[in-house]
From TrEMBL:
One Pfam family, short name: TPR_16
TPR repeats: 35-68, 69-102
Protein known as: Pilus assembly protein PilW
Organism: Enterovibrio coralii
InterPro entries attached to this UniProt entry: CellSynth/LPSAsmb/PSIAsmb (IPR051012), Pilus_4_PilW (IPR013360), TPR-like_helical_dom_sf (IPR011990), TPR_rpt (IPR019734)
Length: 251
């Protein structure tokens, strides 16, 4: 009986020690730091193509900090990539509910909406991002809005938005090239040519920029120049889709 009481007493003391230790651990536990660690791991697994472990860590990030915008946004992006659109939207909305002034949340939600062909809602989300006072990725949001406008077949809006992206950040290859292509389509050949010259100076020859020059010089009735750029395209990028388009006369 005495041994039993001693054993029970020892068990009680051990349990008490465990309880005290747990309380101290919980008191010192940093949920945001823990979530950030899981986010970093999740993104690393995504980069390596380990989607299962990525999801495990991103879900844990949200469990550690259910109202933390970065955890919610990152998990939403994962869900979006794997096609779980309803769940992704729920995560984006949660991020915006808890952090309504987070420009990244508005911007990423806009990209999500555009991929769902919800163009008006997407543009509203991009505008909300741009309006946030401490959001500095304005060029990103203008460019995303422009690409979304292109998807919606609104070339005029796309042209204006690409220009705004360049105004905020001149060294943007996507906006520069897409704007030049729109200018070519509208017959603004002089402006487009100048823009493409600047593009090549900053970013070098690219398959899409060379094909754009072929089209521009063809429209400008400069066949020698068109052939010259086509030769550069063939020499530098013989396996590119743009060179195949050139051969098929699909430009």
């Amino acid at each position: 009986m005495a041994r039993t009481l001693i054993s029970l007493l020892l068990m009680g003391l051990l349990a008490g020690c465990v309880t005290v230790t747990d309380e101290k651990t919980q008191a010192s536990f940093d949920n945001i730091q823990a979530a950030e660690s899981r986010i970093s791991l999740g993104l690393a697994y995504l980069k390596d193509g380990n989607w299962l472990r990525a999801r495990e860590n991103l879900e844990m990030a949200v469990e550690f900090a259910p109202r933390y915008d970065r955890a919610l946004i990152t998990f939403a992006h994962y869900l979006q990539e794997v096609g779980e659109f309803e769940q992704a939207e729920a995560q984006y909305k949660a991020a915006l509910r808890y952090s309504p002034k987070n420009g990244d949340a508005h911007n990423n939600y806009g990209v999500f909406l555009c991929k769902q062909s919800r163009f008006e809602e997407a543009q509203e989300a991009f505008e909300n991002a741009i309006e946030q006072p401490n959001y500095y990725k304005l060029a990103d949001s203008y460019e995303n809005a422009a690409l979304c406008a292109l998807k919606a077949d609104d070339d005029l809006a796309a042209k204006q938005l690409f220009q705004k992206a360049i105004d905020h950040e001149p060294n943007r290859p996507v906006s520069s090239l897409r704007l030049a292509q729109l200018e070519i389509d509208e017959g603004e050949l002089t402006q487009a040519k100048l823009r493409l010259f600047q593009f090549h100076k900053r970013f070098g020859y690219q398959p899409s920029s060379l094909l754009a020059m072929v089209k521009l010089e063809t429209l400008a009735q400069q066949p020698t120049e068109a052939v010259r750029y086509a030769s550069i395209l063939e020499k530098k990028f013989p396996e590119s889709n743009e060179y195949r388009q050139y051969l098929a006369n699909e430009y």
